[in-house]
Amino acid sequence: DAGVIQSPRHEVTEMGQEVTLRCKPISGHNSLFWYRQTMMRGLELLIYFNNNVPIDDSGMPEDRFSAKMPNASFSTLKIQPSEPRDSAVYFCASSSPSDNNNEQFFGPGTRLTVL
Amino acid sequence: AQSVSQHNHHVILSEAASLELGCNYSYGGTVNLFWYVQYPGQHLQLLLKYFSGDPLVKGIKGFEAEFIKSKFSFNLRKPSVQWSDTAEYFCAVKGTSYDKVIFGPGTSLSVIP
Question: Among A15-19, A41-45, A104-108, B23-27, which range has the highest average pLDDT?
C-alpha cells in the first residue's frame, strides 16, 4: 500500500493567492483528517470527514479555509486568500473502520510558505 | 472536553540514559491511547497504542507505555535511549465513542551521543 499521499510536498506562494492542498487516503479508510503543524501552536486538527461527510470543522481557523471530500479517495484543503500566518506543515491522515483502535496513518505533509 | 497534557516540552538525554515522558489526559469515558513519534523532517508514525487488556503496552524500538487509569496517565518509557531516538513525541487520546483523536502538544527529545 502506498500510504496516505499528499501533494504538493512543498508550496511557496505569495500573500493573497489561492492554495489547494490535496490528499489521497489509504484505500478502504473511511475517516480522513486534516491537521496543521506549527512551532507556535503544535499539531492542530482542522477538520475531519467520516464517509466523505465533514463531521467536525471547529478547528478551521477562518472562512478563508475550506475543505472538501468529493469521494472516498480524494480530499482538498483550500486557503483563499492565503496569508503569511498560514505558513505551516499541513498533514492529512486517514483511519480504517475495521480498526477498532482507530490508528491514524499520516501522510508526508505539505510544507506551505506564504510570502 | 477531552484534553491531553505532556509534562515536558523539551528533554535532553545522553545515550544509554533511561527515558520517561509524561502524559495525562482528561476524559470521563473509555479511551484509546496512543504515542506517535515524528522524526526530524518526517510525518507522524505510531509508536504504540493501548485499547484494552494489559495496561503495560510494548511498542516498536524498545518503547513501552503504562496506562494508569486512576491517574489518567499514559507515560512513555525506554530503558536506554539511542541517538536515533531524537524526535518529537506526541501522546494522543480518543474516546471510544468518538472519532476525533486529541493530540498533546508534543515533547521534543534530543539524545546526545
Answer: A15-19
The beta-carbon neighbor of A43 closest among B51, B99, B106 is B106
Q: Is B106 on the interface with A (CB under 8 A)?
A: yes
Does the pLDDT value for residue B29 go beyond 70? yes
Do strands B10-14 and B107-112 pair parallel, antiparallel, or not at all (unpaired)?
A: parallel
Q: CA A15, CA A12: separation in Å to the nearest integer? A: 10
Nearest CA in chain A to B33: A101
* Angstroms from B70 CA to nearest CA on chain A: 21
Residues of B in contact with A109 (CB under 8 A): 43
To which residue does cell 526530524 refer? B40
Rounded distance, CA B17 to CA B13, Å? 6
Beta-carbon separation of A31 and B99 below 8 A: yes
pLDDT per position as a tens digit, B82-107: 999 999 999 999 877 666 788 899 99
